[in-house]
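Hi support team,

I submitted a single chain yesterday and got back a structure, but I'm not sure I'm reading the token output correctly. Could someone confirm the output below corresponds to the sequence I sent? I've pasted both exactly as they appear in my results page.

Thanks,
R.
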Amino acid sequence: MTQPKPVYLLAGRWGKNPDPVISRVIKESGIAKPSIGYIGAAAGDNIEFFKRMESYFQMGGAGVTTLVPTVNPKADMERSKDLLEKSDIVFISGGDVEVGMQILQQRKLVKFIKELYLSGKPFFAVSAGSIMLAQEWVRWRDPDDDNSAEIFPCIGVAPVLCDTHGEADKWEELIALLQLEKSGTIGYGIVSGNAVKVNPDGTVEALSGIVNRFIRQKNKVEMMPDLMPDK
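Hi R., thanks for writing in. Yes, this is the structure output for that exact sequence:
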């Protein structure tokens, strides 16, 4: 029986050279020039962003990247599912976490994506997409009321809680999420340009730089020692 693969969560900061984490994801697929199914729900299926990511995938050794339609209400979801099934790797784009999850739920794709993961399909994501592949995220019913914060479910194939690019605001949203979680819950702050590998058993490895960590302890959130890449 095929086992689930590790999930790679990136906080992208792109240059002209191939990104080492993208290259690693592609290499570990074990397929020469693997095809990538691109889910751009969080970015509104933005073509400009798709083309930019497509070029990074090609630099990393990928073959054809296909934009899998999810945003257009008239999109044929059976065709989208077929495209994902036929892709060697599935990628979730950045954008807006809540919007992306609403679209995937409306299109009834969340369960299907989980089934693909359980069948052994490799997944990776960047920025908001990384949060979407994790367990949960936070939103505010009233943006002006801190007490209106609430948790909502994400795709959940990576058994972690994480945020990306939050170092400038000291991980305000991640901390808000952890304040709503049970004691002992850990959250990972993936610094811009860095990434983590989340194994099916929930163990987490830093890949390209430090990852900030926080833990909910009783009634407060405390910072833990950073997660560092193995030398």
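A quick pointer for reading it: The chain has a mean pLDDT of 95. Let us know if anything else looks off.

Best,
Support desk
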